[in-house]
Amino acid sequence: MGKQDERSNLIVELLTNRQIASISELAATCGVSEITVRRDLKKLQADGTVAVHGGVASLNLAAGRVPIGDKYFVAQQAQQQRDEKTRIARAAAGYLRESETIVIDMGSTPYFFARAIPPDLPLTVVCYSLNTFIELHERRQFTIYFAGGLFDPDSLICEGPEGLRALAGTRAHRAFITGSGFDERLGLTTSNFNEQRLKQTALEVAATRYLLLDSSKFGVVKAAHVADLDAFDVVITDSGISEHYANLIRGAGKQLIVV
């Protein structure tokens, strides 16, 4: 293995664990100049492994790299049910209309949703997830509001009173929300309590609320409660959803989109 390959593996390992790093940090970690790191990143960017935005590099969540461990990592979640999440994201993007204001939740499915937004569609986007912001920030037809706060490197969200106040002051046409599990009695839940209030506030400020959830999440319960089914207007999922949950959603008068 050559030195460039060794550095590339080290870069991927670092980004897998941290999700994002500056060029200077990567250079210091690899013990080389920033020019050399930029050359390495150019190769990794060409094969789709990383994304580079100015002086910052991040793991490409659609690249198929999966980190090790049992903590919640956005990059890890992006590889699970990726085809299903991509179909869900494209279906959700079909609801967007010119000049609307939308809120995009954190997580892997909202990331795929951000990627699926038509590049020529002018929108105002409110988000609180760094990977969503990085995906969209170069689209000049978007006005982007990023709710700040304390950064969580595992989930890539910023959370805190300042960001919650900014989000609560927003009024949006649509909010696109996901979670770690949905149970017929316990509702939508998530693994991370830091996400709980952000998701709840996003639901409160939107006229139409979309639940984007792949079928593997139905029947799953996590620690932090987000909302019950009544909080949503439209549920978008894949064809793996059970007849039981499909009937439950339709019986509650919600629009169910199966892709």
Please give a structural write-up.
It is a single chain. The protein is an alpha/beta fold. The chain has two domains: 3-59, Arc Repressor Mutant, subunit A, CATH 1.10.10.10; 74-258, Rossmann fold. It contains ten helices and 15 strands. Strands 6-5-4-9-12-14-15 form a seven-stranded parallel sheet, with helices on both faces. Strands 1-3-2 form a three-stranded antiparallel sheet. Strands 10-11-13 form a three-stranded antiparallel sheet. A hairpin with a 3-residue loop joins strand 10 and strand 11. Helix 1 (3-18) crosses helix 3 (34-46) and helix 5 crosses helix 6. The termini are far apart. Residues 64-78 have low confidence and may be disordered.
Radius of gyration of CA atoms, rounded to a whole number: 19 Å
Largest sheet: 7 strands, parallel
CATH architecture of the largest domain: 3-Layer(aba) Sandwich
How many helices in DSSP terms? 10
CATH topology of the largest domain: Rossmann fold
- CATH top-level class of the largest domain: Alpha Beta
- H/E series: HEHHEEHHEHEHEEEHEEEHEEEHE
What's the overall average pLDDT, rounded? 88
Instruction: State the separation between the terminal residues, measured CA to CA.
Output: 43 Å
Q: Can you give the helix content as a percent range?
A: 25-40%
